[in-house]
Amino acid sequence: MRGVALPPSEPVRVGGLLSGTSMDGADVLFLELQGPLGGEWGVDGLRWKVLAFETRPWPLALREEIREGCRGGTARVLAQLHVRLGEAFAEAVLAVIESAGLAPREITAIGSHGQTVWHEPPREGRRGASLQLGDPATLAERTGIPVVSDFRARDVAAGGHGAPLVPWADRVLLHRPGRGRALQNLGGMGNVTFLPADGATTGIRAFDTGPGVSLLDGAVRRATRGRLPWDVDGEMAARGDEDEALLADLLSHPFFDEVPPRSTGRERFGDAFLDEVISKAKPETTEDWDNLIATLTALTAESVARAYRDFLPSEGLDEVILTGGGARNSALVRRIERAVDPLPVITGSEALGIDPDAREAAAFALLAWAHLQGIPGNLPSATGADAPRILGSFTPGRAVGGESR
Question: H or E segment at 348?
Answer without folding.
Answer: none
